Every structure is written in structure tokens, then in C-alpha cells.
Amino acid sequence: MSEYILTLEGISKSFPGVKALDQVSFNLKPGEVHALLGENGAGKSTLMKIISGIYSYDEGTYLINGEAVGELTPKKAQELGIAIIHQELNMCQDLTVAENMFLGREKSRFGFLSQNEMNMEAEKILKKLKIDLAPETLIKKLSVSKQQMVEIAKALSTNARILIMDEPTSALTDREISELFEMIHQLRADGCAIVYISHRLEELEHITDRVSIFRDGRYITTKNFGETTLDEIIAYMVGREITNKFPNVSCEKGEKILEVKSLNSGMVKGASFELYKGEIVGIAGLMGAGRTELVRAIFGAEAIESGEIILNGKSLNIKSPKDAIQNGIVLGPEDRKLEGLCTKLSIRENIGLANLDLICNSVGVLSRSKEEALTQKAIENLKIKTPSAEQIAKNLSGGNQQKIVVGKWLVRNAEVVIFDEPTRGIDVAAKVEIYNIMNDLKLRGIGVLFVSSEMPEVMCMSDRILVMCNGRITGNLKASETSQDEILKYATKYN
Ligand SMILES: Nc1ncnc2c1ncn2[C@@H]1O[C@H](COP(=O)(O)OP(=O)(O)OP(=O)(O)O)[C@@H](O)[C@H]1O
Ligand SMILES: [Mg+2]
């Protein structure tokens, strides 16, 4: 009997123009949490899709309990006890929680779907996992974080022996994350083998037994987590040491560029603040504090009930994102799949769509060469890993998709650039690239506003920090003079 429940050796996989995996090895012991780490595009998700029968592989050996599995399909993988929580949410928006959980293995009675039975079963599983959701709720009514919890419940409901979690925490609140870790501890104690993929390296210490590192489709090394350090792991991931994880630059604060006065929009109540040229302002707060709503209102994506937005001394009448963009206010949104990216279009088309006014002439004819030049600029500036500008966005790795969401606006001359969780799902080295972009904007005299749930990032990259709680701005702090504790105090202060 093999020590390993799963053994992969010499696995390769190519896509047109990309060798995603080159002779990689990976193994799993029962009852371990094995973190798989690597930069965006390293091949992590591809390998997980091979393990779960979604992709075939070009060469290599795949063994379960020491035995070859042969041709694998998603269904067969499930029968072998393999479950996967995908990096991108995969829910059917018009079905209920229970229907999504039992998709493809619906319960039926006398040939009819048994809604009742599925609801009861789903309720049992949700209760066991302490997820407070009614099985009859439509998925589209749920927040991204709740949807992610359903995805997790779905995978666990199959009684998996091998559970793959591809960035499960990217959209979860801190409380949900600690609940997830509790679940992971329980599963590990029950002998389940877990593959854990995350770019939030600080999470690893809570759960990880071993770590394997990939770089550019190649296997680099495997270590016992206790016998290595985060700095060593990062060096293996990027092939060099990253000395400054938060590069910040200082420059003279310029004139006031944006003023928001007593803004009311949905849950946002009486928000007032100012942004100056050459300033980076971070917006901190707990999940649900109204940060995304505030920036969406400024961008014209939420209706403004009352209040004023003043840009360069001029009061604006923003009714839609188009108005905002025309005035030089742009936003890189939080949810890339829903709003930030057309996944079926190419990189070029995504960049082009966001900048039609720049690439079309006065009678609306699109200049392909201008579009290509803009795209090339974005690919280079952001180091997007792709065989060409024509690659369909869906085929890029998660982090590289995120770079397009951020990058599509940067090729134009904006006055105020807003980012909502710009580094979600992005690897350590790419984070530094995004920070450099923010710094670059700052040095060019642009006002930068960014929402982030990552405390170190808000603390280190901002000049000033707005803290939100319950729809209100409760704190306006100078970053160099505040502390994490003080921010948290304002983030939980109801008034
Ligand atoms: N279906 C596909 N068609 C073409 N190329 C693909 C496809 N899936 C993945 N790739 C390419 O394979 C490489 C590895 O991608 P993969 O998604 O496995 O990376 P990853 O390590 O999961 O990255 P991330 O941390 O950004 O999620 C990337 O260059 C990606 O563009
Ligand atoms: Mg991935």
C-alpha cells in the first residue's frame, strides 16, 4: 500500500501556445493539508483540473492509492472521492442553494426530482458546517462570500477523500475564514487529504502541513511547512528574493482634486471626504461596511440619492459609469467575473471596450492599430502572462485576469483612479507590480482611491486612510500616524 493517496509524476499539459505544466510531480498523504503555491500562471489550477478529471494530461503517471486510474472524467474523479472547489465561482445563479449543491447528482423519487429531499439533505450539511443559509434561497440573492460557502458545502457533501480548494478564501470575511479553517481541521482529523491553494501566504501557518511550489509550469520543491519560512517560500515562488513587499513613494501633495460631500446612496450615509493630487487614500473597513457601495456611487454605478461630487472645483452630475469615465474617474471593480471582464472576449477586445472613445475616430470607426497599441502597452506595463493579445480572457490564469481588470483603465489619462480590492488573487510579485502602478499614478499627480481588506496593504500603501463602518465614514487617519488597532476601532464603531 502506498503512503500516498495521490501520486502524480512527470505530468505535462500544453494549451495552444502555452506549456502550462512541464513534467511536474505532486503527491498527497491522507490527513494532510498540502499547500500548492506559485505565481499567477504557474499552473496550479491546471494541475487541479487534471486531478479532478476536467482536463486530460499529455503525459505522466496518475495514481490513486498506488494504482493507475486510467482515463479520468469529472464523474469518475468524484466516484474516486475527489472534490474540487474552483477558483472561479461556478454556481447557477437561477437555481437555489440546494439545487446547486446537488447539481449533476439530483435526488429523485419515482423519476421525479425530489426537491424536498434535496432541501432536507442540504439543510443537514449546511447546519453541520454552521453555514446559516436556507436551502431554498436563490443563489443570485447571495453575496459572493455566501456563494463561496455554498461551493464549499457542495464539495463537502460528496464525502470526499481528496478535497481541492483553489483559493477558497479570496472572497470570505475573516469570520468565515476562521470557520473554514475549523472545517479544514475537522476534515484533516477525519483523514481527508486537502490541497490548499492561496495567495494569502499569511493564512498558511494556521493549516498547512506540507507545501509544494511551482514556477512557470515546473515543479520546484516540496517542504514540510514547519521546516521553512515564508521568505524562503516566496523566493522559491518568484525565483528571487523580494526585499520590499510594499514599495511606497512620497511626493508633494498637490491641489484638491476630488471632493465628496454628504453623499447618500443605498447604505452609504453622509459620506464626505477629500482627495488630493498625488495622494493615495485607502478605504478600510469590515466586509459589508459600505466601501464598495461608496466607490460604486462615485463611479456612477449606484444611484446617488443626495450629496455632491466635485472634481477640480466643478460639481459633477454623475448618473452612469459613462459620465464618470468621461470626467476622468475610473474604477477597477471588485468582482472581475461579473463586472470587470468579458471572459469570452480576448485581452485586446477587453482593453478596447473600455477605451472605445480613444480608439474610435469622430465617426465611430475603430482603429485596430490603436487598439493593438493600447493592448500591448497594458500587457507590458502589467506583465500579463499570455501567448498573445488575442488570448480569450477565460483562458488566462486568475491573477492575470485580475491584471486586465486593473489594467484596462490605466492606459487612459484619468484624474481619479479607484481600485476595489485590486490585489485579490494576485501573487506576491504581481502585488508589488500593482503597488508600483499605484505609485506611478500618484507621481503623475493622479488621485488614487483604493478599497482593501488587507490591513498591511492599506497601512503601507496609503497616505491617508478612510475607515468605514455601517455605511458611514468613521475615521479619516494619516497612515503614518495610525495603527492597525486604531483602524479596527473605527471599523467597529457604530455611530
Ligand atoms: N483553457 C486554457 N486554454 C489556454 N491556456 C490556458 C487554459 N487554462 C490555463 N491556461 C494557461 O496555462 C497557464 C497556467 O494557468 P493556471 O490557471 O493553471 O495558473 P495558476 O497557477 O492557477 O495561476 P493563478 O494563481 O493566477 O490562478 C497560464 O499561462 C494560462 O494562461
Ligand atoms: Mg489558479
Task: Describe the global form.
Answer: globular
The overall number of domains is 2
Task: Quickly give the structural class.
Answer: alpha/beta
- How would a crystallographer describe the biggest sheet? 6 strands, mixed
Instruction: Please identify the oligomeric state.
Output: single chain
Rg from alpha-carbon coordinates: 23 Å
Helix content: 25-40%
Runs in which pLDDT lies below 50 for 5 or more consecutive residues are none
Distance between the termini: 62 Å
The CATH H-level superfamily of the largest domain is: P-loop containing nucleotide triphosphate hydrolases
What binds here, in terms of ligands, is: adenosine-5'-triphosphate, magnesium ion
Residue share in β-strands: 25-35%
CATH architecture of the largest domain, please? 3-Layer(aba) Sandwich
Overall pLDDT metric: 89
Count the beta strands: 22
Topology-level CATH name of the largest domain:
Rossmann fold
CATH top-level class of the largest domain = Alpha Beta
Strand order of the largest sheet: 6-9-10-3-11-12
Structural overview:
With 495 residues, the protein is α/β, with parallel strands linked by helices. The chain has 2 domains: 6-238, Rossmann fold (3-Layer(aba) Sandwich), CATH 3.40.50; 256-491, P-loop containing nucleotide triphosphate hydrolases (Rossmann fold, 3-Layer(aba) Sandwich), CATH 3.40.50. It is 33% helix and 25% strand. It is built from 18 helices and 22 strands. The chain has a 6-stranded mixed sheet with strand order 6-9-10-3-11-12, with helices on both faces. It has a 6-stranded mixed sheet with strand order 18-19-20-15-21-22, with helices on both faces. The chain has a 4-stranded antiparallel sheet with strand order 2-1-4-5, with helices on one face. Helix 12 (347-354) packs parallel to helix 15 (398-410) and helix 14 (368-382) crosses helix 15 (398-410). It starts with 5 loop residues before the first strand and ends with a helix. The mean pLDDT is 89.
